[in-house]
């Protein structure tokens, strides 16, 4: 949500960060004034030249602390706008506490997770809404770092990972192509490599790609392995706590997703 809310681009622009610089800087800021190369390594599926262009001079324009302050403010204001009176509900407060406990469990295992570790070092907010957002951000980055490990281990480079995602049909191909920065030749090259491995197929009439049985199996293997690496975070709340947290936040997530416009 924090990457798509209109408040984000407006807030980062006030700091002097325009275009995708705001996205890369705001997500990388918890790691400090890191190089573009570090962002390439930890974000993984974006074209390196896109990252280098977006990160050029950002820490001379705005400090990581200033970007982080803006990011938290964006998250709070956008969620209050989207969720309305729900931000003060007992359900949200309960969800915040459960998510915080899970995130603190993740914080005991930062090894091999650089992007997560940067976020784990941040101060916790006090407002339940911002606690819930921060906890979910930690859990998201915890899983994301583990997911990159699995992509590398299973021989999928950045553009191949994006094309595999395209082949699931979960996100509009135009969105993936526009935001990840790979050229048409790089995209086609990744498509050909995956097809040669028997992981995807392309409709000759429409060009639409889809997963083969082998591709679906590999993707599920990667997702399952990523989940196994992530489960340690949730041991502190147990299965009952996970079920309760899922029940509490599902209405909130549906409202946020609907507000994003990506579901229509």
Give me a quick take on this structure.
By secondary structure, the protein is mainly α.
Order of helices and strands: HHHHHHHHHHHHEEHH
By CATH, the topology of the largest domain is Arc Repressor Mutant, subunit A
Number of DSSP E strands: 2
Task: Based on Cα principal axes, name the global outline.
Answer: globular
Query: How helical, in percent, are the residues?
Result: 55-70%
> What summary fits the major beta sheet?
2 strands, antiparallel
> Hey, roughly how much beta strand do the residues contain?
under 5%
Would you state the CATH class of the largest domain? Mainly Alpha
Distance linking N and C termini: 16 Å
- Give the structural class: mainly alpha
Number of domains: 2
Strand order of the largest sheet: 1-2
CATH superfamily of the largest domain: Winged helix-like DNA-binding domain superfamily/Winged helix DNA-binding domain
Overview of the molecule:
- The protein has 264 residues and is an all-alpha fold.
- It has 2 domains: 86 residues; 176 residues, Winged helix-like DNA-binding domain superfamily/Winged helix DNA-binding domain (Arc Repressor Mutant, subunit A, Orthogonal Bundle).
- It has 14 helices and 2 strands; from the N terminus they run H-H-H-H-H-H-H-H-H-H-H-H-E-E-H-H.
- A two-stranded antiparallel ribbon has the order 1-2.
- Helix 7 crosses helix 9, helix 9 packs across helix 13 and helix 10 crosses helix 12.
- The longest helix has 26 residues.
- The two termini are 16 Å apart.
- 34% of the residues are buried.
């Amino acid at each position: 949500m924090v990457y798509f809310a209109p408040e984000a681009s407006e807030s980062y622009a006030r700091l002097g960060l325009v275009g995708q610089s705001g996205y890369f800087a705001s997500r990388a800021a918890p790691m400090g004034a890191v190089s573009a190369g570090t962002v390439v390594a930890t974000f993984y599926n974006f074209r390196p030249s896109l990252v280098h262009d977006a990160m050029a001079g950002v820490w001379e324009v705005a400090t990581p602390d200033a970007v982080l302050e803006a990011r938290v403010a964006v998250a709070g204001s956008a969620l209050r706008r989207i969720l309305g009176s729900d931000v003060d509900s007992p359900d949200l407060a309960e969800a915040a506490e459960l998510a915080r406990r899970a995130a603190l469990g993740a914080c005991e295992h930062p090894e091999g997770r650089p992007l997560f570790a940067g976020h784990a070092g941040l101060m916790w907010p006090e407002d339940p809404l911002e606690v819930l957002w921060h906890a979910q951000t930690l859990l998201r980055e915890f899983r994301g770092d583990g997911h990159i490990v699995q992509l590398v281990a299973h021989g999928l480079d950045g553009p191949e990972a994006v094309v595999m995602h395209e082949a699931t049909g979960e996100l509009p191909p135009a969105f993936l192509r526009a935001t990840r920065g790979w050229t048409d030749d790089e995209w086609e090259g990744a498509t050909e490599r995956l097809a040669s491995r028997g992981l995807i197929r392309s409709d000759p009439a429409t060009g639409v790609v889809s997963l083969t049985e082998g591709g679906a199996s590999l993707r599920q293997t990667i997702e399952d392995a990523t989940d196994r690496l992530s489960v340690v975070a949730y041991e502190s709340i147990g299965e009952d706590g996970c079920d309760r947290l899922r029940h509490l936040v599902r209405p909130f997530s549906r409202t946020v997703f609907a507000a994003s416009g990506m579901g229509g």
